[in-house]
Automatic annotation (TrEMBL):
<comment type="pathway">
    <text>Amino-acid degradation; L-proline degradation into L-glutamate; L-glutamate from L-proline: step 1/2.</text>
</comment>
<dbReference type="InterPro" id="IPR008219">
    <property type="entry name" value="PRODH_bac_arc"/>
</dbReference>
<protein>
    <recommendedName>
        <fullName>proline dehydrogenase</fullName>
        <ecNumber>1.5.5.2</ecNumber>
    </recommendedName>
</protein>
<dbReference type="Pfam" id="PF01619">
    <property type="entry name" value="Pro_dh"/>
</dbReference>
<dbReference type="InterPro" id="IPR002872">
    <property type="entry name" value="Proline_DH_dom"/>
</dbReference>
<feature type="domain" description="Proline dehydrogenase">
    <location>
        <begin position="45"/>
        <end position="298"/>
    </location>
</feature>
<dbReference type="InterPro" id="IPR029041">
    <property type="entry name" value="FAD-linked_oxidoreductase-like"/>
</dbReference>
<keyword id="KW-0285">Flavoprotein</keyword>
<dbReference type="InterPro" id="IPR015659">
    <property type="entry name" value="Proline_oxidase"/>
</dbReference>
<keyword id="KW-0274">FAD</keyword>
<keyword id="KW-0547">Nucleotide-binding</keyword>
<keyword id="KW-0560">Oxidoreductase</keyword>
<keyword id="KW-0642">Proline metabolism</keyword>
């Protein structure tokens, strides 16, 4: 049943018609737990409250299903406005983005141009931009673009997914760049031809790449709500004397709040991934697919 539900939500999340309906009716049925509103102003207020609790943030203006150059330019402008708002408000937040929202599927050079505009603005403010990794079809081109951008910018990082077979080699290749990586298990539905189908294998690979990146001396963002992975990371850094300023834990807005606060109280850096915007539906469906408990939360809100 859990697998069926996960597949269903992932399929619905890719539906253009469902996304259009979601835009029309807004953040209802529990989505506001995971999405910090539809406007920059609303998101900044959420960031401010998280900062007050000792947590830092990465803001993501949600945008999927970009099909025109005009939409890509609009998404780029929203990223720039988000960086402006972060600087003007003084909150502690980076920026996360998906390159498909900047026109990657339309034209690679269009995407590169938009990325440079965003990274230039972030550099003016002394801020950092994280490229979210998307599905397997976008993996290689995303890494290629990241490598090219790193020739000019040092304020950009990328995400690596533990469930892909190729990940260990990608990690070895990226080590020469001293890459700042967010390490995740992976949330997209992929073929067993390219990804580990069994959770235990994903978990083992996740531990392997966490250890590899930390022991190589690179800044590591361990993005997981899995307390076993968090405990593994804590033990690893203690055994090897890795200081707390060489890594951070990252979690999603609205999930495992108690765990986030506990880690802050223990002296660890916790960064919360906070999405906002009208294109929230695909993101929301992936959150439902990841954890069945999220589904029951939404159903309770619907009946309320």
């Amino acid at each position: 049943m859990e697998v069926l539900m996960r597949n269903m939500f992932q399929a619905i999340g890719k539906s253009r018609s469902a996304n259009q309906l979601a835009k029309r009716y807004g953040l209802r049925f529990g989505a506001s737990r995971f999405v910090a509103g539809e406007t920059i102003k609303q998101s900044i207020e959420v960031v401010r409250k998280l900062n007050q609790s000792g947590r830092v943030v990465t803001l993501d203006h949600l945008g999927e299903f970009i099909s025109t150059e005009a939409e890509a330019m609009e998404s780029t402008e929203m990223c720039l406005r988000t960086l402006d708002a972060i600087a003007e408000s003084g909150v502690q937040s980076n920026l996360s983005l998906k390159m498909t929202s900047l026109g990657l599927d339309i034209d690679k050079e269009l995407c590169m141009s938009n990325m440079r505009r965003i990274l230039d603005r972030a550099r003016e403010y002394g801020n950092f931009v994280r490229i979210d990794m998307e599905d397997y079809a976008h993996c290689q081109v995303s890494l290629d673009i990241y490598r090219e951008l790193r020739q000019t910018y040092d304020n950009v990082g990328i995400v690596i997914q533990a469930y892909l077979y190729r990940t260990e080699q990608d990690m070895k290749d990226l080590n020469e760049l001293r890459a700042n990586l967010r390490l995740v298990k992976g949330a997209y539905k992929e073929s067993p031809k390219v990804a580990f189908p069994e959770k235990k294998d994903v978990d083992e690979n996740y531990k392997k790449i966490i250890k590899m990146h930390l022991l190589n001396g690179n800044y590591t963002a361990v993005a997981s709500h899995d307390e076993n992975m968090i405990a593994f990371t804590k033990q690893l850094v203690q055994e090897h004397g890795i200081p707390n300023d060489r890594f951070e834990f990252q979690m999603l807005y609205g999930i495992c709040e108690e765990l986030q606060n506990r880690l802050v109280a223990e002296g660890y850096k916790v960064r919360v991934y906070v999405p906002y915007g009208i294109d929230w539906f695909g993101y929301f469906m992936r959150r439902l697919a990841e954890r069945p408990a999220n589904v029951w939360f939404v159903l309770k809100n619907m009946f309320k």
